[in-house]
Design goal:
Length: 323
């Protein structure tokens, strides 16, 4: 009997194979850890040329399990097709527009081992709508973005390996099988996407699982590659999904902006320092730079936000890099 792999890596792709899914698969197969794990690839009803590219990838990397969907089920439906085929104890959900540097999947798995109460763990990245985003100078080539992101992840000047999160972005996320067994699949009412990860985060929290961000794991995220470019029609669908989300979870459900989520991470650094765990000066400086770059445009909001940053900056002053 074949032993069950501990980890299932689930890759969802749609069209633009050469620009997205091919790069994701190449990065995964550059990681020696991946050879021992299950890799499921689902083609979300790509056109004929891209479908052929998926088939060619299967020939190049015979170890992957390739499945084609007859219709595009968006991110939630496509990822549910991946999840239904996962056999491991830890799932790593990967959108097609992700590049996973060598060793990063292993670091997410290590974070699960060190945090038994965690149900969902996500890496930091260059592009996200929550606290997973870290500062990367705009306009850099992909390889430079990855190098900057790895410098953040590899910082050796202190700090906790994980931080608690309110919600996670499912561009790349680790999930325990126990979460999937208890919480169930993603809600396909959110098709083609948008808010399905927020919804799942809150469902997992309600079931008693912790959500964490692994500060030692970084992935590159292009953004927008999983189910195509944003159009006016999809923007309308995103607004519809927001309405559905609030109807499901309540109109008063907190929906913090990315800048507020980042500010909360800075406050978490300060709280950890007060409790005896000094933060990494490298990461403090990075998140402060992101915080300043994301200042609100409105006068009142900006003033309130800058006061919040000023307060946390004072608390973190001992951990700022020396000029």
């Amino acid at each position: 009997m074949t032993a069950r792999p501990r980890v299932s890596i689930l890759v969802l792709g749609y069209n633009r194979f050469a620009e997205t899914t091919a790069l994701a698969l190449a990065s995964l197969h550059d990681d020696p850890d991946v050879a021992q794990w299950q890799v499921v690839v689902v083609d979300n009803a790509s056109d004929e040329a891209n479908r052929a590219a998926f088939v060619a990838a299967k020939a190049r990397w015979p170890g992957i399990e390739l499945h084609h969907l007859p219709v595009n089920r968006g991110y939630p439906g496509g990822m549910n097709a991946c999840l239904a085929r996962a056999t491991g104890e830890i799932f790593i959900l990967v959108s097609s527009d992700i590049i996973v540097p060598r060793g990063m999947v292993g670091r997410i798995v290590e974070a699960f081992d060190a945090n038994p109460s965690a149900g969902l763990i996500a890496p930091v990245t260059n592009f996200a709508g929550n606290a997973q985003q870290v500062w990367i100078d705009p306009g850099l080539p992909v390889n430079d973005v990855i190098a900057r992101g790895l410098a953040y992840a590899n910082a050796t000047d202190g700090g906790a390996d994980v931080l608690a999160a309110y919600r996670l972005d499912f561009c790349c996320v680790g999930m325990r099988r126990s979460v999937y067994d208890e919480v169930g699949p993603l809600d396909e009412a959110f098709i083609p996407g948008y808010f399905e990860d927020f919804d799942y985060s809150l469902r997992a929290r309600a079931a008693g699982f912790d959500l964490l961000i692994a500060e030692r794991a970084f992935v590159y995220h292009e953004g927008g590659g999983t189910f195509g470019r944003m159009s006016d029609a999809k923007r309308q669908l995103a607004n519809r999904n927001r309405t559905y989300f609030l109807a499901r979870h309540g109109a008063a459900t907190p929906m913090p902006h990315e800048r507020d989520a980042n500010a909360a991470m800075l406050e978490a650094y300060a709280d950890a320092a007060a409790a005896g765990t000094p933060p990494s000066p490298t990461r403090v400086a990075n998140r402060l730079k992101l915080a300043l770059a994301r200042r609100p445009k409105g006068v009142v909001k900006r003033l309130r936000y800058l006061r919040r940053l000023s307060a946390v900056r004072k608390r973190l002053a001992p951990f700022l890099p020396r000029p």
